[in-house]
């Protein structure tokens, strides 16, 4: 029963973490669904007649086009005040001299000379103010969030309807020059393009000079309809020097010259748009939502008159996305489907000498088209997903129908309705603004309350892990009440919250519901722990993490707050792991556990703690350490480079073999990969044979004997087919295609059946009923030569004694014909570990198949590395015979570090472009059709393979020291103290065989507590990582790199945590299953004996 | 243990620190364009040389441990040779450890090796001077309750602080500050040097502070 409570308790802790992660994510990562619908020229967004009557002119869509050509000059980070004149704020004082003020003189001149031709707007930008998100907004008219849940994660290409797509489908020639981000966003959309690298933030001139080289010649050639120039110099200058630097003045003056030159070349049918995509802070950064970042300049100019009135004194602030519908209608294009911007109405008044009525009617018709389009979008969006509020949506719909009816009525009552015109315009504008506000509410605003709440919940869960992991091993740990009370409280809280929500008729948010349940279950636990704790122990024992390990942990956590370190984590983690390994060795040495006391010439004095005799020699631990470091370093050869470090070269070994050209090299590599596979298999079999479990006739071991080689064979065959599929003769193509479908599925099926077998019969022991079997032969290890030291004597003498005893007894038994029936069971000592290792191997094979072939070498390294680490850790963990058993913190930290390190050395990086998408096609070369969960599962298994393997293998940390007991005993046989335990095994077995993992069974309470503690410690180490990621993402949410580094890191870490916690639960459940099976096995044996 | 011992230790350490400071300033009189960052390899060699020389001089002058019983010439020569071999071995093993820790394998081999030499100078040479080429004695000194004199105690402290300094020196390397001292192995060598100097300063103070608690069996 206790086992179930342990599992449930761990599951509850996991739930706490999940709800914290979900709450934080809902506040931090705003999501939006990308719709792929497109507006088309032939189809109006709603019912209504075309404004120009029934006959349609060619080249016009929803509205007649006013300009045939547009020059769009995008100056990155052109803040609004950069375009302002050098006015003094207080009249009478001399103007403030700032390097960025008043440098765009040509704009000011135009505004003064030609007030009907030019206008400067302050545009309000929606966060996140990063260039890619802004470009999306400026072309789709929507509100890009960090995760636009679209169909395609692998590339940045925009799938939504956008201006560029409308332009190309209308047959306009779009010429682009500048920032190469556009290349990713609009692949192949431009009739002519000059891309320049945007990566180096310190380079102020490459992009701008490149544009200038092509700008005027292109313009003069006349082979364009839309010309886009994206300058980066101002933005880079901001990043490098900040806005208050003389360099900024130079850069802005250069931009001024560019604009001046363009204005001189404009023809009458051309519109010039100068826009900034976002602003910048006082330090020149952007990405967040501060006032300076979200204000950008927008300047419009045309040689023909644009406006019917001079600019008002107080210019309104307009949303940046207003540019999209305005440009679309001005150019005679349909408004992009997902646009939520509002047209700039004053641009649609026909001319300065037209009548006020017709001009107002034109404005109203533009606004009506826009409103129809937004309404259509909202309707489509709300049927696709539920993240817009239904109530607000309903109100908007009513508003729209009213405005639309008014507009229709206005059109029909030809004259005399002038009085209602302004109200119709106001109604339409109100609808558009409220629709936009609703979208912003749900898509574009960080919810600081949720972020803080999520982080607090995570922190509390971490604290709980720390507290409970100390408490779990103390004798009076109340499992059941501790479990039941929080769950009851949590349910109560959830029901109360749901009831409250139901009475106030608000929509039930599952995230908040989970958080409420988590908090209400957490509080009584903490209270109980607090009261239970205080009476027994001081709080100081709470911080049981040893100093150096705590320091390493803190360094690791601090690294999440620096974008450089997150980018360099692939190198930093092996460094920390290596440090931890050397620290472990140094600690072992320092405590004198490595050297036999004879080496220490000075005998110990005083009351030094008896640390027990060294179990391993110093050279042994050193060898383990060097082997570990070597494995770590070799794993580093398989790193993929993050895109932020251009100097770094990704390992060429990450690509699949199929991409290799050279036949010989390919064959060699193939041989190496198959060799790694065979070595992995052989190592596992060797290990099982060494502990004897392979001899067991149980089905799992039969599977290991026959099923595993079959799996390896299947994998090797699949690799051969995959790497050489193109070279196959045409006759065999069908066969090859069929095999590449069948083989991976067969391997996965075999692995699954193996796991099922393992769960069915997890006890892998060899039972021999009958007279005592001659065990001595396996126990005795040969020793030759004269004994030279005390240690050797210690080793030899008992052996000789035992041998003689054995011989004597054997003779005795033979003479007395049949003695009492004894049952000899072998390999009970490693029964848990054998099941774990088998399960891990079975898991590893399908995961291996999802990776590129050469990653198999890394998997071999992974097994080797964890084997060495377990041995090294076991050397430092004393076996406390009756319990309580504990797993030290350094072991858990090293295990978690190794999981992270393996994540990187299998060629992963925590960024979306680095995900191995090809994993989705292993076994499904034709794709998956409409199903999405299966490819997601495959890709997820590929990405988080190391998290899964290490989490499942986590209980090995507890088991391994007991396993290593046999080695220590083989070297120096010490008489066991507790031989009195009544085991079914015969007496001589008790004496001969070390108890190993049966010690755990002897103290089931301690065993369960240790498993619980192990789980809690591992969850703590992972939990503080996710907490640090969450804190970093929320504190640095205005950082330049937040969407590029911190947010993806948080997502990967959160996913990794979920995978790890599930794996951990599975691993612990497996151990418990074995434990249960061993118990029932004993019971059967007892029954058999009694009969 | 007397206070005079601690005083002698302090003076010896001050002498070492002085030599490191000299290694920064003296070469600029003889070499043109000398600076620690730009001609880093030169400085590494000079610093190693200075520290080695000072350690040897101190060993000959102060004689912290009683000289061995046998003092024949051949014994001395073999001892010296052994010392050299030990030093080289330590250089190579440090080099291997750096590479295992993530230093580039092929590029910058010379830089990595000179860093190994420098770290050996800070750690192995004092060990050799104080304990001789006797691995067991080394292992004894670097274990709990293994020290037998204030000299060994200070050796323990300076060596550990040199290692810690070198280790800490690796942390600024990934940062994107683009400073000249972030290049491998400059930050690590500087870290090791600062660690060594800190150890030299701290150890006499620490020993002085804890002189009541410190009791050495054989002193």
TrEMBL record, chain A:
Residues 974-994 are annotated as: Disordered. The keyword Ribonucleoprotein does not apply. The chain crosses the membrane at residues 448-469, 481-499, 511-527, 539-560, 572-590, 668-688, 703-722, 734-760, 831-850, 857-879, 944-963, 1018-1038, 1050-1072. SUPFAM superfamilies: Alkaline phosphatase-like. It is a multi-pass membrane protein. Pfam families: Phosphodiest (PF01663). It is found in: Endoplasmic reticulum membrane. GO terms for cellular component: endoplasmic reticulum membrane. GO terms for molecular function: mannose-ethanolamine phosphotransferase activity. GO terms for biological process: GPI anchor biosynthetic process. Pathway: Glycolipid biosynthesis; glycosylphosphatidylinositol-anchor biosynthesis. Keywords: Endoplasmic reticulum, Glycoprotein, GPI-anchor biosynthesis, Membrane, Transferase, Transmembrane, Transmembrane helix. Belongs to the PIGG/PIGN/PIGO family. PIGO subfamily. This is GPI ethanolamine phosphate transferase 3, catalytic subunit. It comes from Carlito syrichta. The lineage of its organism: Eukaryota, Metazoa, Chordata, Craniata, Vertebrata. The gene is PIGO.
From TrEMBL, chain B:
The keyword Transmembrane applies. Coiled coil: none annotated. It comes from Carlito syrichta (Philippine tarsier). The gene is PIGF. It comes from the Eukaryota. Pfam families: PIG-F (PF06699). It is a multi-pass membrane protein. This is Phosphatidylinositol-glycan biosynthesis class F protein isoform X1. Its main location: endoplasmic reticulum. GO terms for biological process: GPI anchor biosynthetic process.
């Amino acid at each position: 029963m206790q086992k179930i409570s342990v599992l449930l308790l761990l599951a509850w802790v996991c739930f706490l973490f999940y709800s914290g992660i979900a709450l934080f994510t809902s506040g931090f990562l705003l999501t939006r669904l990308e719709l792929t619908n497109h507006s088309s020229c032939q189809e109006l967004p709603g019912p209504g007649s075309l404004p120009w009557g029934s006959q349609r002119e060619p080249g016009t869509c929803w509205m007649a086009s006013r300009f045939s050509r547009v020059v769009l000059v995008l100056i990155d980070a052109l803040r609004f005040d950069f375009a302002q004149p050098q006015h003094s704020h207080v009249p009478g004082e001399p103007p403030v001299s700032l390097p960025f003020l008043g440098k765009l003189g040509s704009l000011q001149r135009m505004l003064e000379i030609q007030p009907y031709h030019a206008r400067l707007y302050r545009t309000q930008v929606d966060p996140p103010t990063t260039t890619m998100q802004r470009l999306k907004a400026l072309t789709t008219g929507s509100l890009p969030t960090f995760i636009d849940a679209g169909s395609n994660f692998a590339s940045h290409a925009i799938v939504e309807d956008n201006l560029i797509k409308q332009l190309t489908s209308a047959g306009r020639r779009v010429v682009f020059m500048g920032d190469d981000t556009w290349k990713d966003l609009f692949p192949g959309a431009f009739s002519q393009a000059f891309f320049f690298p945007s990566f180096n933030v310190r380079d102020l001139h490459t992009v701008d000079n490149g544009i200038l080289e092509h700008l005027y010649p292109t313009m003069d050639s006349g082979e364009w309809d839309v010309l886009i120039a994206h300058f980066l110099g101002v933005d880079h200058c901001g990043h490098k020097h900040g806005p208050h630097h003389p360099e900024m003045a130079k850069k802005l003056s250069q931009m001024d010259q560019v604009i001046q030159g363009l204005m001189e070349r404009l023809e009458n049918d051309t519109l010039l748009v100068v826009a900034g995509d976002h602003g910048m802070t006082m330090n020149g950064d952007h990405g967040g939502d501060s006032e300076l970042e979200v204000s950008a300049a927008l300047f419009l100019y045309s040689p023909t008159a644009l406006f019917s009135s001079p600019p008002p004194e107080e210019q309104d602030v307009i949303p940046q996305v207003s540019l999209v519908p305005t440009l679309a209608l001005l150019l005679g294009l349909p408004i992009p489907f997902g646009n939520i911007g509002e047209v700039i109405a004053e641009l649609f008044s026909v001319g300065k000498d037209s009548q006020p009525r017709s001009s107002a009617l034109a404005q109203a018709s533009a606004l009506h088209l826009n409103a129809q389009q937004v309404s259509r979008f909202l309707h489509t969006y709300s049927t696709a997903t539920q993240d817009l509020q239904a109530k607000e949506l309903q109100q908007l719909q009513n508003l729209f129908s009213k405005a639309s009816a008014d507009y229709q009525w206005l059109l029909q009552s030809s004259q005399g309705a002038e009085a209602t015109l302004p109200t119709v315009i106001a109604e339409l504008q109100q609808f558009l603004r409220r629709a936009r506000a609703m979208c912003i509410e749900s898509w574009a605003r960080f919810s600081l309350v949720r972020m803080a709440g999520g982080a607090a919940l995570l922190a509390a869960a971490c604290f709980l892990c720390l507290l409970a992991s100390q408490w779990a091993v103390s004798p009076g740990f109340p499992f059941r009440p501790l479990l039941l009370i929080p769950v009851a409280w949590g349910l109560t809280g959830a029901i109360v919250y749901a009831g409250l929500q139901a009475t106030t008729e608000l929509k039930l948010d599952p995230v908040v519901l989970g958080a409420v349940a988590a908090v209400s279950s957490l509080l009584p636990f903490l209270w109980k722990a607090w009261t239970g704790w205080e009476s027994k122990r001081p709080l100081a024992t709470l911080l049981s993490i040893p100093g150096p390990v705590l320091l390493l942990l803190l360094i690791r956590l601090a690294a999440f707050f620096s974008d450089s370190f997150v980018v360099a984590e692939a190198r930093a983690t092996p460094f920390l792991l290596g440090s931890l390994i050397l620290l472990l060795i140094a600690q072992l040495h320092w405590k004198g556990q490595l050297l036999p006391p004879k080496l220490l010439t000075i005998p110990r004095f005083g009351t030094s703690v008896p640390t027990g005799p060294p179990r391993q020699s110093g050279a042994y631990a050193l060898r383990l350490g060097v082997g570990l470091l070597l494995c770590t370093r070799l794993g580093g050869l398989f790193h993929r480079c993050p895109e932020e470090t251009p100097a770094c070269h990704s390992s060429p070994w990450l690509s699949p073999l199929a991409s290799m050209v050279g036949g010989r090299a390919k064959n060699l590599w193939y041989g190496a990969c198959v060799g790694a596979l065979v070595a992995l298999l052989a190592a596992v079999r060797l290990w099982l044979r060494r502990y004897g479990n392979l001899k067991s006739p149980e089905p799992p071991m039969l599977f290991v004997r026959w099923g595993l080689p079959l799996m390896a064979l299947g994998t090797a065959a699949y690799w051969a087919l995959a790497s050489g599929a193109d070279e196959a003769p045409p006759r065999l193509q069908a066969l090859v295609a069929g095999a590449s479908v069948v083989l991976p599925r067969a391997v996965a099926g075999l692995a699954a059946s193996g796991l099922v077998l393992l769960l069915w019969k997890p006890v892998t022991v060899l039972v021999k009923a009958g007279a005592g079997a001659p065990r001595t032969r396996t126990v005795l290890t040969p020793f030759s030569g004269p004994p030279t030291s005390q240690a050797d004597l210690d080793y030899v003498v008992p052996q000789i004694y035992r041998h003689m005893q054995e011989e004597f007894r054997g003779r005795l038994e033979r003479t007395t014909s049949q003695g009492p029936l004894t049952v000899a069971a072998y390999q009970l000592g490693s029964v848990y570990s054998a099941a774990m290792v088998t399960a891990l191997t079975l898991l590893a094979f399908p995961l291996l198949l999802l990776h590129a072939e050469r990653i198999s070498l890394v998997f071999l390294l992974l097994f080797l590395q964890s084997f060495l680490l377990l041995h090294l850790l076991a050397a430092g963990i004393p076996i406390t015979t009756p319990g309580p058993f504990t797993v030290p913190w350094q072991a858990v930290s090293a295990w978690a570090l190794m999981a992270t390190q393996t994540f990187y050395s299998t060629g992963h990086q925590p960024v979306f472009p680095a995900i191995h998408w090809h994993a989705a096609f292993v076994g499904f070369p034709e794709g998956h059709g409409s199903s999405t969960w299966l490819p997601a599962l495959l890709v997820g298994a590929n990405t988080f393979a190391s998290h899964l393997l290490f989490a499942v293998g986590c209980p090995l940390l507890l088991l391994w020291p007991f396993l290593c007991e046999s080695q220590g005993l083989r070297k120096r046989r010490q008489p066991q103290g507790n031989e009195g335990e009544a085991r079914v095994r015969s007496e001589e077995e008790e004496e001969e065989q070390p108890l190993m993992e049966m010690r755990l069974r002897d103290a089931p309470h301690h065993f369960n507590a240790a498993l619980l503690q192990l789980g809690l410690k591992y969850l703590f180490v992972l939990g503080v990582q996710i907490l640090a990621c969450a804190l970093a993402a929320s504190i640095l949410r205005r950082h330049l790199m937040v969407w590029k580094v911190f947010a993806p890191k948080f997502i990967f870490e959160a996913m990794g945590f979920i995978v790890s916690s599930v794996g951990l639960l599975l691993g612990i459940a497996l151990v418990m299953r074995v434990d249960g099976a061993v118990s029932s096995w004993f019971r059967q044996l007892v029954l058999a004996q009694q009969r | 243990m007397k206070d005079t011992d601690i005083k002698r230790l302090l003076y010896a350490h001050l002498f070492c620190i002085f030599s490191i400071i000299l290694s920064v300033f003296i070469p600029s009189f003889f070499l043109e364009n000398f600076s620690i960052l730009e001609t880093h390899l030169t400085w590494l060699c000079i610093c190693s040389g200075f520290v080695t020389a000072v350690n040897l001089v101190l060993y000959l002058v102060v004689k912290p441990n009683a000289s061995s019983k046998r003092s024949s010439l051949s014994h001395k020569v073999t001892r010296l040779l052994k010392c050299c071999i030990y030093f080289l071995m330590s250089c190579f093993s440090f080099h291997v450890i750096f590479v295992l820790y993530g230093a580039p394998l092929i590029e910058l081999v010379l830089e990595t090796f000179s860093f190994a030499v420098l770290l050996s100078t800070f750690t192995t040479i004092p060990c050799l001077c104080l304990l001789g080429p006797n691995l067991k004695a080394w292992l004894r000194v670097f274990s709990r309750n293994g020290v037998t004199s204030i000299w060994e105690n200070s050796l323990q402290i300076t060596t550990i602080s040199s290692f810690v300094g070198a280790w800490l020196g690796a942390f600024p390397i990934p940062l994107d500050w683009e400073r000249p001292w972030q290049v491998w192995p400059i930050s690590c060598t500087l870290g090791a040097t600062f660690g060594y100097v800190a150890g030299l300063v701290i150890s006499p103070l620490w020993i002085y502070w804890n002189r009541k608690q410190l009791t050495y069996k054989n002193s």
